[in-house]
């Protein structure tokens, strides 16, 4: 596989993962709560909404980086 094709594939994969995380942050945060139940039973732990906000911020960042990487690979490679 040529490196440009690999770069575009990687960029589009990151873009898709980021979009999923940005669109459904509460569901992803709920999965995290299921995976780490002791964290969410602690009354001093941050609420699920703060986890969802973090997931959304990371998702938007990953989508931006993935889109830029794919665009760069298409134009340069």
Bulk shape: elongated
The overall strand count is 0
Largest sheet: none
User: Which structural class do the helices and strands define?
Assistant: mainly alpha
Question: What is the count of helical runs?
Answer: 4
Descriptive terms for the model:
77 residues; mainly alpha; elongated
Would you kindly provide a written description of the structure presented here, covering whatever features stand out?
The protein has 77 residues and is mostly helical. The chain contains four helices and no strands. The longest helix is centred in the C-terminal third of the chain and has 29 residues.
Can you describe this structure in just a few lines?
With 77 residues, this protein is mainly α.
